[in-house]
């Protein structure tokens, strides 16, 4: 799968997107605890366009990269089966 980084989509810029799988990955720092409603609105915008949004906390990436990669891998795998 090919992911692109920092891609403008609609009124937003996503951290990572795989267009063929329609998966968006967002990496959230501590500031996102204060903007939950904004993030929900943003996620809904992408879901309405058929994208699955995966959100990970920054510390999760640093402390459990293998777990994060497994979630991404499984999401891509499941998306492949749905579109077949």
From TrEMBL:
CDD domains: Endonuclease_DUF559. Transmembrane segments: none annotated. It holds the Pfam family DUF559. This is DUF559 domain-containing protein. Residues 1-76 form the DUF559 domain.
